[in-house]
Amino acid sequence: MLKYDIVIIGGGPAGLAAAIEAKKNGIDSILVIERDRELGGILQQCIHNGFGLHIFKEELTGPEYAEKFIEELENIGIEYKLDTMVLDVTDDKIVNAINTKDGVLTIKSKAVIFAMGCRERTRGAINIAGSRPSGVYNAGMAQRLINMEGVMVGKKVMILGSGDIGLIMARRLTLEGAEVIGVLSRDNFAAGLMRNVVQCLEDYNIPLMLRQTISKINGKDRVESVVVVNLDENKKPISGSETVYECDTLLLSVGLIPENELSRNAGIKIDRATKGPIVNESMETNVNGIFACGNVVHVHDLVDYVTEESRRAGKSAAGFVKGELNNNESFIETKPSKGINYIVPHKIRVENLEKSLELFMRVRGVYKNSKLVVKLNDKIIKELKKRHMTPSEMEKIVINKSLLSEQKDAVLTVEVVKEA
Amino acid sequence: MEKKEMVCIVCPVGCRLEVFEDDKSKSGYIVKNAACPRGEIYAVKELKNPTRVVTSTVKIKNGLLNRLPVKTDGTISKDKIFECMEIINSIEVDAPIKVGHIIVENVLGEGVNIIATRSMALAEKE
Ligand SMILES: Cc1cc2nc3c(=O)[nH]c(=O)nc-3n(C[C@H](O)[C@H](O)[C@H](O)COP(=O)(O)OP(=O)(O)OC[C@H]3O[C@@H](n4cnc5c(N)ncnc54)[C@H](O)[C@@H]3O)c2cc1C
Ligand code: SF4
């Protein structure tokens, strides 16, 4: 059996940042396990720019951002295994993995960091009638095929879902010579960032088709057409509003969910709102010594926040191995209140905080001229004015440690309040 | 006089700007509804000389992957994007390549280069 102090599962930006930070905090026996042929995670296929504005103060593409961390990881000599898939992690931190070179690997670790990222929702998760011809792709899959394999997915394309990946792929396909008929959104606004609506759709005159969805896919071997239907205010299809669009390809960009099969098997509690592990201020799950960070915890739209959060996980895991992490039973619980969908972290042990606490959250709807109000046991400890908030952009609140005191059953809430 | 509507994308507030041509103002335009000065700068630039960074891929031989990601290392005129893509699509490079390597110098005569956005090692021989 192999033995390490810290095993990190996933070599995307989360796993890389966690590994580097653990090493910087005095741990030498570290192994990163990645199932893909190289490190970098999803960033390697995100060739557009817009990464790293917070951390590097410049706009990088996904691969450039990844390479900075991969280089550092290699320079400081952290071990990693590629083409290796983790099959199972037990609650006493035995990691079972497999690859073609070593066969089955059993690794005993003092601490484990989950950094498996997220996966795309599939068509199975959304119901569309019709046959299952070829030419239907998840948007992220299409992105990988075009940007890494050099395989073009189609000539005439409809895109279902107006999240950032759908918008970015609309531009990418257009640049590569395909005709994009439109991007469909169930709502009366796009799910992705305004910046992407302007620079990916409007720049190329690609229609954003609001309040519409696909009711049927036609085609025997290959997609031949799709039936688009209008939705009413309650998002119910309006009968008689069907329009048929000829196309050979349909891209689905209908959302991401944290990849948590391993977590569930290890007995880790999952938050129903984030679909990721419940974590504390140190990014530790309910299983002592198992940490989680990045998209496996909650889906991020800014990789900079992934890096920040993962550094904290790496540092805390190092602290855990060295026996320096306080495991006090009393903690503050965070609870999303009016207008807030979720808050990460879920539990706060104040003595493990350095100077301040960082709370990440998403709001439920679009709010203009409002404020975020933070209360500890019903007493306001912080207010933050916000001109504009939307569910597609994660909010971050920094709270000074001195404002937090741990009492038994303490509860910290955040709510949205409209300004008069 | 013609009114042009546009959304400012400089920050997430997304002000809905109204822009009017105006010979008397210094920029040649009057920008309404901008909640801060950056909105006006953005609107005038977008109308006078819109530019973009282009990101794409080029073919690569003997590399770990079939495609090498590239970008323009500055912005180019928006109306030259497809011209830029034609050049990008005509190129094939050989592995290995280092990130930042110049693939095409001074691509459209605008002083901007096309550079590699990652390093690519030689593919391992089976
Ligand atoms: C299409 C797309 C576009 C984006 N655009 C932007 C943008 O413009 N700007 C920005 O700042 N952010 C953007 N993001 C967000 C940002 O890239 C992600 O939040 C970030 O990459 C998440 O990092 P991660 O390490 O948590 O996950 P990932 O990058 O997904 O890495 C997870 C890694 O774990 C590996 N793994 C999973 N399971 C196992 C297993 N069982 N065994 C071994 N390895 C495993 C995977 O192979 C993968 O390499 C985008 C995200 C996506 C998906
Ligand atoms: S005008 Fe100012 S406040 Fe409004 S979107 Fe632009 S940068 Fe933001």
Structural notes for this entry:
The complex is a heterodimer of chains A (about 425) and B (about 130). With about 425 residues, chain A is of the alpha/beta class. Chain A is about 20% helix and about 35% strand. Chain A folds into three domains: about 190 residues, FAD/NAD(P)-binding domain; about 130 residues, FAD/NAD(P)-binding domain (3-Layer(bba) Sandwich); about 90 residues, Immunoglobulin-like (Sandwich). The mean pLDDT of chain B is about 90. Chain B folds into two domains: about 45 residues, no CATH class; about 60 residues, Roll (CPE0013-like fold). At the A-B interface, helix 2, helix 3 and helix 5 of A face strand 5, strand 6 and helix 2 of B. Bound molecules: flavin-adenine dinucleotide and iron/sulfur cluster. Flavin-adenine dinucleotide binds next to helix 1, strand 3, strand 6, helix 3 and helix 4 of chain A.
β-strand number of chain A: 28
Strand order of the largest sheet of chain B: 8-5-6-10-9
Order of helices and strands of chain B: EEEHEEEEHEEE
* Top-tier CATH class of the largest domain in chain B: Alpha Beta
